[in-house]
């Protein structure tokens, strides 16, 4: 158990109070999870640390005594971690009073273990994951903007801050102090016997003013107490039936028998994407779908969800995150070796999102109704997307360099001016993350690095230090002075820039499509991009100013150099490079890019024009 402390000890400074507060919080979490014996290992190790952090051991050993001192330490730790502690003390007071069974004013270790294991609000406050038993609520502390009533004591939830707990899955609402008073169980997510297959409704009772209302999960109907038995046999999971795996479709947690003619949706959410957007999207999908269809990528990555759906043949995947999250999932699909790869849709979170843009899912989630997005998934088009292997072989294996971030290209690869800006931005963010805590600051920093690169021209005369071969054919880089090379798989880069540009229409395109490599300038004018054609486009960039002109629309495209199915690049000096937005500094090397496979992606339906004559 002591080993769990070591990562914390390495991060925080012993001289301040930060290590003090973090260790205390970790100790509370350990006890709440029921570590009755191994928690003593913490104290033994902390005795050894007492010369470095005086009074720390005595503080921890006194935690199991006075209730007020326990609450004070928890408040300090919560405040250090940035939690909202405005109304935390009275809530903690009620919880600790409940844990103090003998009403002695002190809490023993045994009382901690017994109370902490079963105290749902305490686990929520400590940020601990609830047990994943069927029927177990997944609580979130929440503020309610309209009159809301507790479904246990039937009283209104009052207060200015977080007034109570709401279940992510069934929206059951209780006071913090009522969460442990045997509330109604959460919606079941599977059936335990074959006899239950076909039982079509899961109901949760809610307390509304003057009346009890039953909420029918999955079909989203509300019924009065006396109307609850009417029309239950007609429930078909409502408007989202094509995406939902109802409880009666899952037998004994492992065997899935979907409703005929449906396409269950497997949802992966990266809660770290888009600030707090990811966390909100995760909670919403846990409510709209069966929670067993929704996976937090922070808890084991994509593998648990893919394993659960491994025997299904006809299902879809929705990835909620940035381009890096999509690449993570596609890599996981490769490793699963599925007989039939499911099709993948994207809900873009954060900024950039070039892949989501070219698949028409947009540049970022704007908080719109997730039901509408799932309706768009129903009407989406299946599109194969090329994926490319990249092999980087250093000229001198002993020369130090950054690790190559990826072995697969989904979006683009670049070398030179744009990678230099991205690398400087990435390096500065790694050193000083506190300076990059908002989108506006990030954009200003990026503009600062771009301006600096314009003045320094660190990648000037690129042609003298680099050669490119397309299918064995050398590429002429002398026609124009270039500071950057981009190898494109999709028609979007740098958050929406189309470096290849639009192509002229011509009757001679059909013959060119059969060529493995095209380098003729006139022929390149009529060649268009296609994410399914097993071809890459090579574009040259004159510098930062040209990049800005393309992004703002003042210039239509960069310099088209080639369209090819294989690329070999040789460098004679260190260059900044990037793969799908992940930059690194690479010593002299040889780079081979070849076709790997195709991923089944879903392209959103075309957006309808919004005008007086095209009303939705």
TrEMBL record:
One Pfam family linked to the record: DAGK_acc
Residues annotated as domain EF-hand: 87-122
Domain DAGKc: residue ranges: 260-394
Keyword set includes Metal-binding: yes
Domain Phorbol-ester/DAG-type, first and last residues per copy: 136-186
Family per similarity comment: Belongs to the eukaryotic diacylglycerol kinase family.
SMART domains (alphabetical): C1 (SM00109), DAGKa (SM00045), DAGKc (SM00046)
InterPro entries: ATP-NAD_kinase_N, C1-like_sf, DGK, Diacylglycerol_kin_accessory, Diacylglycerol_kinase_cat_dom, EF-hand-dom_pair, EF_Hand_1_Ca_BS, EF_hand_dom
Pathway membership: Lipid metabolism; glycerolipid metabolism
GO MF assignments: ATP binding; ATP-dependent diacylglycerol kinase activity; calcium ion binding; zinc ion binding
Entry keywords, A to Z: ATP-binding, Calcium, Kinase, Lipid metabolism, Metal-binding, Nucleotide-binding, Repeat, Transferase, Zinc, Zinc-finger
Catalytic activity, EC: 2.7.1.107
GO BP term, pick one: lipid metabolic process
Catalysed reactions, as listed in the record: 1,2-didecanoyl-sn-glycerol + ATP = 1,2-didecanoyl-sn-glycero-3-phosphate + ADP + H(+); a 1,2-diacyl-sn-glycerol + ATP = a 1,2-diacyl-sn-glycero-3-phosphate + ADP + H(+); 1-octadecanoyl-2-(5Z,8Z,11Z,14Z-eicosatetraenoyl)-sn-glycerol + ATP = 1-octadecanoyl-2-(5Z,8Z,11Z,14Z-eicosatetraenoyl)-sn-glycero-3-phosphate + ADP + H(+); 1,2-di-(9Z-octadecenoyl)-sn-glycerol + ATP = 1,2-di-(9Z-octadecenoyl)-sn-glycero-3-phosphate + ADP + H(+)
Protein name as it appears in the record: Diacylglycerol kinase
GO CC aspect terms: plasma membrane
């Amino acid at each position: 158990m002591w080993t769990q402390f070591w990562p914390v000890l390495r991060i925080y400074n012993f001289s301040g109070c930060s290590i003090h507060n973090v260790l205390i919080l970790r100790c509370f979490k350990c006890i709440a999870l029921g570590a009755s014996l191994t928690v003593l290992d913490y104290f033994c190790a902390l005795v050894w640390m007492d010369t470095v952090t005086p009074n720390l051991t005595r503080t921890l050993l006194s935690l199991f005594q006075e209730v007020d001192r326990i609450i004070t330490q928890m408040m300090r730790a919560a405040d250090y971690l940035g939690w909202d502690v405005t109304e935390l003390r009275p809530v903690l007071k009620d919880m600790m009073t409940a844990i103090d069974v003998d009403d002695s004013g002190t809490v023993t270790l045994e009382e901690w273990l017994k109370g902490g294991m079963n105290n749902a609000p305490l686990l929520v406050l400590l940020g601990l994951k609830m047990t994943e038993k069927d029927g177990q609520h997944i609580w979130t502390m929440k503020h309610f903007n309209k009159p809301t009533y507790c479904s246990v004591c039937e009283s209104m939830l009052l207060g200015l801050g977080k007034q109570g707990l709401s279940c992510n899955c069934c929206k059951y609402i209780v006071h913090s102090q009522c969460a442990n008073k045997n509330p109604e169980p959460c919606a079941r997510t599977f059936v335990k016997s074959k006899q239950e297959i076909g039982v079509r409704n899961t109901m949760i009772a809610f307390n509304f003013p003057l009346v009890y209302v039953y909420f029918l999960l999955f079909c989203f109907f509300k019924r009065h107490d006396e109307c609850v038995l009417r029309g239950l046999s007609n429930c078909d999971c409502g408007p989202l039936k094509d995406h939902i795996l109802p409880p009666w479709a899952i037998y004994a947690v492992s065997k899935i028998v979907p409703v005929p003619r449906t396409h269950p949706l497997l949802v992966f959410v990266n809660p770290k994407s888009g600030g707090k957007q990811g966390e909100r999207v995760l909670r919403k999908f846990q409510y709209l779908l069966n929670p067993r269809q929704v996976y937090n990528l922070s808890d084991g990555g994509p593998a648990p969800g893919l394993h659960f759906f491994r025997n299904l043949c006809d299902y879809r995947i929705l990835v909620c995150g940035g381009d890096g999250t999509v690449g993570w999932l596609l890599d996981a699909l490769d490793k699963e070796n599925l007989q039939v790869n499911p099709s993948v849709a994207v809900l873009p979170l954060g900024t950039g999102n070039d892949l989501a843009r070219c698949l028409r899912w947009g540049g970022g989630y704007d908080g719109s109704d997730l039901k509408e997005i799932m309706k768009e998934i129903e009407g989406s088009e299946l599109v194969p997307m090329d994926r490319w292997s990249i092999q980087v072989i250093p000229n001198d294996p002993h020369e130090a360099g950054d690790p190559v971030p990826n072995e697969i290209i989904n979006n683009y690869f670049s070398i030179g001016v744009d990678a230099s800006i991205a690398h400087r931005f990435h390096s500065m963010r790694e050193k000083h993350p506190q300076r990059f805590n908002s989108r506006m600051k990030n954009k200003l920093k990026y503009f600062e690095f771009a301006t600096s690169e314009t003045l320094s021209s660190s990648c000037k005369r690129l042609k003298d230090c680099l050669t490119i071969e397309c299918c064995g054919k050398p590429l002429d880089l002398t026609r124009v002075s270039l500071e950057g090379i981009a190898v494109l798989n999709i028609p979007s880069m740098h958050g929406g820039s189309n470096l290849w540009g639009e192509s002229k229409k011509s009757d001679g395109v059909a013959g060119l499509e059969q060529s493995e490599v095209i380098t003729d300038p006139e022929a390149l004018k009529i060649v268009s991009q296609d994410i399914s054609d097993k071809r890459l486009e090579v574009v040259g960039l004159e510098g930062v100013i040209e990049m800005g002109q393309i992004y703002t629309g003042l210039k239509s495209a960069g310099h088209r150099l080639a369209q090819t199915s294989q690329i070999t690049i040789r460098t004679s000096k260190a260059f900044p490079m990037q793969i799908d937005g992940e930059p690194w500094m690479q010593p002299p090397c040889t780079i081979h890019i070849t076709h790997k496979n195709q991923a089944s992606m879903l392209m959103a339906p075309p957006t309808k024009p919004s005008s007086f004559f095209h009303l939705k």
